[in-house]
TrEMBL record:
Coiled coil: none annotated. Pathway: Amine and polyamine biosynthesis; ectoine biosynthesis; L-ectoine from L-aspartate 4-semialdehyde: step 1/3. The keyword Transferase applies. Pfam families: Aminotran_3. This is Diaminobutyrate--2-oxoglutarate transaminase. PROSITE patterns: AA_TRANSFER_CLASS_3 (PS00600). Its cofactor is pyridoxal 5'-phosphate. The keyword Transferase applies.
Length: 241
């Protein structure tokens, strides 16, 4: 953690830092979970230096990693939180920015516009919170399914000599060493009815984001389809370098 502090101190040496924006689990970056201790080091640094801590929870929030907010596992409280994606609960366009009360200082008419909100999305979002977040059932199930996905991907990785998978809850990455292999696997899975996408700086991982409401049967079918896609590519060429 000393390296993190040195990096932040260096970045803030020439001018005050206004804010630090962080994904607690990188999404497009390749599903890289930040360690809780890393986040717990970052949070007090921002406070000590008068910088806002902004968590981008657009992709990994709303229960994707288990808890509603992805940063809950670290026990930190950001200054601002960005939410979207599954927030509406029904595929409707919706995005929110949550902020501490002391930063809610808009003047009358300062934050307005005809494009600020889509009423049906507010209705479905409220209903989603009532249905799925009135107790801890969804969070517990997501954690259990995440362990299942992680175990299955670990066996697939071992079978084909791939790097270890990584993820939290229902956000997982299956990495590949050979350039282009992740895209080939995603293409093969798509031909069998499974939608994946590549992620990472070099599109080197296949990213899995199953619906939080996925059934056991659907998850089994999806994981079997992915394994078959990896096997089909492995049969044509070596996946590892």
């Amino acid at each position: 953690m000393a390296g993190l502090v040195r990096s932040l101190d260096t970045a803030a040496a020439d001018a005050p830092m206004a804010a630090v924006v962080v994904e607690t689990v990188q999404g497009e970056g390749g599903v890289n979970p930040a360690r809780p201790v890393w986040l717990r080091t970052l949070a007090p640094w921002t406070q000590a230096h008068g910088a806002l801590l902004i968590v981008d929870d657009i992709q990994m929030g709303c229960g994707r990693t288990g808890p509603f907010f992805s940063f809950e596992r670290a026990g930190i409280i950001p200054d601002l939180v960005c939410l979207s994606k599954s927030l509406s609960g029904y595929g409707m366009p919706m995005a929110l920015t949550l902020l501490r009360p002391e930063y809610d200082v808009w003047k009358p008419g300062e934050h307005n516009g005809t494009f600020r909100g889509y009423d049906p999305a507010f209705v479905t979002a409220a209903r989603t919170l009532e249905l799925f977040w009135s107790d801890g059932a969804l969070e517990a199930r997501t954690a259990a399914l995440g362990e299942r996905v992680g175990g299955t991907l670990a066996r697939t990785a071992h079978r084909y000599g791939l790097p270890a998978p990584r993820g939290l809850g229902l956000a997982w990455a299956l990495p590949f060493d050979r350039p282009g292999a992740a895209r080939e696997v995603c293409d093969a899975a798509y031909r069998s009815g499974l939608l994946l996408e590549t992620a990472g700086p070099y599109d080197e991982v296949a990213k899995l984001l199953p619906p939080l409401t996925v059934t056991d049967e659907q998850l089994t079918h999806g994981l079997d389809t992915l394994d078959a896609a990896v096997a089909s590519v492995a049969g044509a060429r070596t996946l590892a370098v």
